[in-house]
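Q: What would this chain look like folded?
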Amino acid sequence: MKRRNFIKRASLTGLGLAVAPSIISCETEAKTDKKAIAIATPVLPIVVATWNFKNATKAAWKVLEKGGASIDAIEAGCRVEEADLKNTTVGNGGSPDRDGNVTLDACIMNKDGGYGAVVCMENIAHPISVARKVMEETPHVLLAGKGAEQFAVEQGFKRENLLTEASKKAWLKWKEKSEYKPIINIENHDTIGMLAIDKNGDISGGCTTSGMAYKMAGRVGDSAIIGSGLFIDNTIGGATATGMGEEVLKTVGSYLIVELMRQGRTPQEACEEGVKRIVESNPNYQNFQVGYVALNKQGEYGCYCVHGGFGISKYQEGKQTYIKSNAYTKKA
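A: My prediction, written as structure tokens:
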């Protein structure tokens, strides 16, 4: 291994011995930890997630610390946000489309490359669990709409009304003008993407969302699409995305980031390149947000976004940390 790459890797793997504050940034931490003592063995397990979903990462950690598999941790963590009625961007209580229907997208990937997903599914509160059933119980990888809902019921999931009074009230207010102008870090704060490595070193990931508030009926974003909202390669690592799904779809962002890590980029470098690919080909980038988080097999992680305000939640060594993401800065 070249000396430069060794130093870079050693500085990142030293995270396990560094005393980190409760709030840090991906870039700041990388610079600070260049003075940390290198360790030969990465500190596992670890779980990271988009945004400050503390309860979700805590639930995932409880599975990991007991020796559970990363796929079980992912499902447990994502289900927490799907059940949170105050979270209007995921699961039960999610913001509806323009017609007042709550439609959910989710996907999950395991260490063996297995993938399951549902899109435009209504009336089922836990799409991440239905996605896992698609992966494990069917010959398919993606079910949509009424077919996904029917499959869920056949698997024992109960139908329920996902439109809460609070979300309905907000939708009726929106209908007064019916203007579709997504607000950065508010309406774009639409996804929990989660990555986890268990004690065996196996990585899994999941993504779940109710999508953009007041989207057109039938709209599907990046979250449930393999390679865009999520991609896992157990020999390399994983990546997941949040924000304006259309932009992530057009660049197959999560797959790109994993492939960049395969080529030797750190998770931080790969996330930065993923964002750069979006903004440098889109003069409208000032009007939308995209954020990435990546995790490699060594337990090193990175995050980056188009605009400030994005961050990730990490649980490792029994401690939770919120990490502020640095944002893209256009060069003169």
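The two ends are 35 Å apart (CA to CA).
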